[in-house]
Amino acid sequence: MLVRMTQRELDQSRRCSRKSNGRHTAHCRSPQVSTDRPTIATTTSPSNIYINLFPVKNNTALRFSACWTEQPSSCLKEQGYEVITFLANIGQDEDFEAARKKAESLGAKKVFIEDLRAEFVEDFIWPAVQANAVYEDRYLLGTAVARPCIARRQVEIARSEGAQFVSHGATGKGNDQIRFELTCYALYPEVKIIAPWRIPEFYTRFRGRTDLMEYAQKHGIPVPVTPRAPWSMDANLMHISYESGILENPKSHAPGDLYLMTKNPEDSPSVPDVLELEFRNGVPVKVTNVKEGKSKDSPLDIFSYLNEIGGKHGVGRIDIVENRFIGMKSRGIYETPGGTILLQAHLDMETFTMDKEVRRIKQGLGIKFSELVYNGFWYSPECDFVRFCIAKSQEKVEGKVQLSVFKGQVYILGRESPKSLYNEELVSMDVQGDYNPCDASGFIRINAVRLREHHRLQGFSSSDQFHIEVLWYGVGLTVESTGTGDPLPGLMGNEGSSDPFSPARAPRPPLNYTAGVSVFACQPGESAVTIAQHESLRRHRTEP
């Protein structure tokens, strides 16, 4: 959104900027929504500064969140601001011409609609595939990887328009505000951010869905939220996410009609689709439907086709509670059909071609990458480093994987690669090859050294040890053998002696005596003298 400011407001904005070290804060009055702000109609006055508000989730196909980001735009427009809007096509089901007309009808001076689908796949989804990126073991990061893609283009437009301010429609409780703003600051450090959902004048004016829906109805903003579908959606090429509304109760089951990208697995076809995925440098370069003979070889076409097949068979549904970066837990339901197929295929090819220890290190990098992306640090030095290392690990990840997609599942059928580390002759039980089975004995013994040492420290240094229970009576030491094997000598201190650890040999105690409060180890044949001097016994000595 392009906002014009008077000289008085500009001076106030500069004072706020100095106080906040060059970054806009919620305490700065200039970008807030007010009811008495003066406006300037001209576009050439040197006393004006441009503020771009780019609603980055204004997808009219979305049932909830898309509409609400039109409210900040419309509210600022009604205060006399000029608006430039930016709508990214990242694969959502959208009538873009209708969206353009809607933005213009709301008063946008300029409307940018950008097709980012190809770069979304190549620059963001493919690195996530290479990393096997999964946050907290389940979430494939469909929303998180889209945000830096959108924000990168947002910054490019802002720079080209000479904007010093950008904005977004993300709420004050979610992760997206962090992702958008960290990307903007990383790529455009001097930029100021307007976040309406963190400005009291805005969020106190719209306290809930009812207020927003009334405003939308008054201003002709389409709001496809109904009592039958009261939840928030965010869609892109990689996935659809659902949250809020009735889904905020983690116990409630998701309605069957919630899912838009995948079929119910029970209703999916009774015949599987068999696909062959070809990888090079860890990214897919071709997908072929083996039965139909249909192939796709461009990144966008490959991913779109995998979405189609996965969606048809109900692949990629998850219902999870996750930990937001901001500190709270949230419930999310996700459909990621194409991404789920790629994850399984890539994992298989990676294991087939990658050195064991390299893959072990790379697994840790993948976890770190997932956390960085989820938390909004795509454009950070640490994420650059992690992506570089992951890309290096993928140089030999090349080959073909055949898999079956059926009833909500992905089944690996086979694989081949010119760079495979799999040696069929070496691993065969029928061919000895150059492997000597006798070498395994030394290998096992060497690996057992630390286990033996561990057990030695625990007091279990041989298989014929005896465990004896020790009871302190004040005048005598009674022990009982609880082990097996050679009989343990009877042990007891001198009767009447004040020192139960007396080195004198004592008569054998009754073996059926079971009382005891401490345990130590004794080798068969040890005398009372050695036991009395046994350090573990002294350590376990207890008072009556």
UniProtKB/TrEMBL annotation:
Domain Arginosuccinate synthase C-terminal as annotated: residue spans: 231-452
Ligase in keyword set: yes
UniProt keyword annotations, A-Z: Amino-acid biosynthesis, Arginine biosynthesis, ATP-binding, Cytoplasm, Ligase, Nucleotide-binding, Phosphoprotein, Urea cycle
Start and end residues of each stretch annotated as Disordered: 1-39
Class in the EC hierarchy, top level: ligase
UniProt-listed Enzyme Commission number(s): 6.3.4.5
GO molecular function terms listed in the Swiss-Prot or TrEMBL record: argininosuccinate synthase activity; ATP binding
Keyword Chloroplast on entry: no
Domain Arginosuccinate synthase-like N-terminal: 75-222
GO biological process: argininosuccinate metabolic process; L-arginine biosynthetic process; urea cycle
Pathway noted in the entry: Nitrogen metabolism; urea cycle; (N(omega)-L-arginino)succinate from L-aspartate and L-citrulline: step 1/1; Amino-acid biosynthesis; L-arginine biosynthesis; L-arginine from L-ornithine and carbamoyl phosphate: step 2/3
Entry's localization field: Cytoplasm, Cytosol
Basic residues: compositionally biased ranges: 15-27
Residue stretches of biased makeup (Basic and acidic residues): 1-14
InterPro entries per UniProt: Arginosuc_syn_C (IPR048268), Arginosuc_syn_N (IPR048267), Arginosuc_synth (IPR001518), Arginosuc_synth_CS (IPR018223), Arginosuc_synth_type_1_subfam (IPR023434), AS_cat/multimer_dom_body (IPR024074), Rossmann-like_a/b/a_fold (IPR014729)
GO cellular component: cytosol
PROSITE patterns: ARGININOSUCCIN_SYN_2
Source species, domain of life: Eukaryota
Annotated catalysed reactions: L-citrulline + L-aspartate + ATP = 2-(N(omega)-L-arginino)succinate + AMP + diphosphate + H(+)
NCBIfam families assigned: argG, PRK00509.1
Name of the protein in its database record: Argininosuccinate synthase
Organism: Lates japonicus (Japanese lates)
